[in-house]
Amino acid sequence: MNRVLIIGSVAILSGCQFSNDSDLNTFIAQTKAAAKITATQVPELPRYQAELFQLSGVKNPFFDFETSDDGSDDTDISQCWQPDYDAELYPLSDFDLSELAFKGVIGQSDALWALFETPEGAIARVGAGDIVGINHGRINSVQREEIDITEQLPDGKGCWQEKNTKLALN
Which InterPro entries match (predicted)? Predict the structure, then answer.
């Protein structure tokens, strides 16, 4: 029995050694012979030559239009509006307008109050003429769906510019 098993194993293993892959080798040789290698020469890129910027008789583009050519600021702070830092503070004056959420409106049609939620979750009631936000935003009007606010934004030169903002009910 062992003898039959050994002879069968040798016959099977010797069959695994025989491999007829001549068709595969022929195909590979034909494909390599038929393949053409084509390469094009990469053109040389032209060298970049930077030109020096020469300012001649025109306004310098690197200075703000409200400053002189030498870069000094000609703005007279005493001639522009400044916020009244001693004015009455309102509860919502300490928050940025983007931190406040306009949550609703209460009151009659002739006297409406806006309800704001602070970042801490407190609800505050404000009306026309009140100040909201750190940019001295005065509430001009309160409607059912939106409120109109005029903010005072610094322009970076010591003066302040007005910006009208409308907040819709969220």
Answer: PilP
Angstrom distances, CA of residue 124 to CA of 68, 139, 151: 46, 14, 19
**Segment holding 71, helix H or strand E:** none
**49 occurs within a structural domain:** no
Query: What b/e string do you get for 37-46 counting C-beta neighbours within 10 Å, with b at 16 or more?
Result: eeeeeeeeee
The stretch 126-147 carries a mean pLDDT of 90
Q: Are 145 and 169 in contact (CB under 8 A)?
A: yes
Between the two ends of the chain, the Cα-to-Cα distance in Å is 91
CATH of residue 113: 2.30.30.830
pLDDT of residue 86: 72
Number of domains in the chain: 1
Within-domain flag for 124? yes
The predicted-structure confidence for 71-102, as pLDDT tens digits, reads as follows 555 556 677 877 777 777 788 888 888 899 89
